[in-house]
């Protein structure tokens, strides 16, 4: 399941409480309709909107977590890899692929 997140903030990143309040009604409706076996958050903004502002993607990415009755896996946003030094994207890309394999394993 893919759902968008509104990047409402300014400066370093959006205020996740604003993001959550603006997008939560749509997310809840999508979850009721789709009933996914796993939810994947792409990026810290999406993860913090669901898991709270203390969530650290660098500490928990690729780990299956429980969130409101769903399996949830957080990973970096793919665009973050595009912003890396072009000489060193392979490790970050490989880590993203590994995280997505965790998501796929939860789906099957």
Brief characterization of the structure:
The chain contains five helices and three strands, in the order αβααββαα.
Question: How would you characterize this protein structure?
Answer:
The chain is α+β, with helices and mostly antiparallel strands. The protein has a single domain, classed as Uracil-DNA Glycosylase, subunit E. The protein is built from five helices and three strands. It has helices at residues 16-34, 44-51, 57-60, 78-82, 90-107, and strands spanning 38-42, 64-67, 70-75. It has a three-stranded mixed beta sheet with strand order 1-3-2. Helix 1 packs across helix 2. The chain is globular. It starts with 15 loop residues before the first helix and ends with a helix. 21% of the residues are buried.
Strands, helices and their partners?
Blueprint lengths: L15 H19 L3 E5 L1 H8 L5 H4 L3 E4 L2 E6 L2 H5 L7 H18 L1
The structure class reads alpha+beta
User: How much helical structure, as a percent, in the residues?
Assistant: 40-55%
First and last CA, distance: 14 Å
Q: What CATH architecture would you give?
A: 3-Layer(aba) Sandwich
| SSE arrangement, N to C | HEHHEEHH
Brief descriptors of the model:
single chain, 108 residues, alpha+beta, Uracil-DNA Glycosylase, subunit E, three-stranded mixed sheet, 5 helices, 3 strands, 50% helix, globular
């Amino acid at each position: 399941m893919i759902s968008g997140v509104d990047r409402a903030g300014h400066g370093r990143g959006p205020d996740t409480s604003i993001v959550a309040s603006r997008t939560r009604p749509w997310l809840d409706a999508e979850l009721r309709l789709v009933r996914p076996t796993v939810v994947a958050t792409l990026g810290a903004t999406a993860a913090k909107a669901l898991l709270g502002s203390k969530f650290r993607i660098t500490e928990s990415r690729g780990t299956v977590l429980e969130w409101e009755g769903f399996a949830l896996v957080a990973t970096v946003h793919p665009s973050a890899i595009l912003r890396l030094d072009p000489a060193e994207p392979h490790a970050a890309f490989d880590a993203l692929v590994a995280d997505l394999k965790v998501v796929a394993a939860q789906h099957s």
